[in-house]
Amino acid sequence: MRAGWENYRTEENEKAMPLRERLEVVESLRKENQEKLNRLLELYLNGDFPKDMLETHKNHLETTLNALKREQEALQAQLDRQVLSDEQIKTIQEFITLLRPQIETTDFETRQRIITMLNVEVTLAIEEGQKIVYARCVISEDVALTRDVYN
């Protein structure tokens, strides 16, 4: 099971790489624009430029910063959904540990309901002469909460 988790995490991290790269770009752009806004404030305080001219640039920079912040939050949320954290993996392992003995002693219909609830997908393959089973499922907050039912 541990090897399966590691393979899964490796795959998900590779899939998430473009998101991470875009997130880095957005963070860099936010930093650049914040520095520009700070320099603009210094120019205003020094009285080197007319206030209305600086106000226009300030509004533009603030609009850009707000848009970048929204994009950064959206990218981070997408990344959080796509990649499992160590805590999520630990929770899933605990869930499996609690569920396993119950599955072994339940009737077929209950097992079928559990499989449906977890949205289990199984792929059978033959690789290098060996039969291999690839299984995936989705464990959401709702499913994690139902684990108490099987205690």
Structure description:
This protein is mainly alpha-helical. It has 2 domains: 2-82; 86-150, no CATH class. 74% of the residues lie in helices and 9% in strands. The protein has helices at 2-46, 51-82, 86-105, 108-117, 141-145; strands at residues 121-127, 130-136. A two-stranded antiparallel sheet has the order 1-2. Strand 1 (121-127) and strand 2 form a beta hairpin. Helix 1 (2-46) packs antiparallel against helix 2.
List keywords for this structure.
single chain, mainly alpha, 2 domains, about 75% helix, about 150 residues, 2 strands
Please write out the topology.
Blueprint: H1 2-46, H2 51-82, H3 86-105, H4 108-117, E1 121-127, E2 130-136, H5 141-145
Ends apart, CA distance between termini: 22 Å
Helix content: over 70%
How many separate domains make up the residues? 2
Order of helices and strands: HHHHEEH
> Structural class per helix/strand content?
mainly alpha
Look at the structure and give the mean pLDDT.
Answer: 80
Shape: elongated
Gyration radius from CA atoms, angstroms: 25 Å
pLDDT < 50 stretches? 141-151
Residue share in β-strands: 5-15%
Taking strands numbered 1, 2, ... along the chain, how are they ordered across the largest sheet?
Answer: 1-2
Give me the number of helical elements: 5
Mind summarizing the main beta sheet? 2 strands, antiparallel
Report the count of strand segments: 2
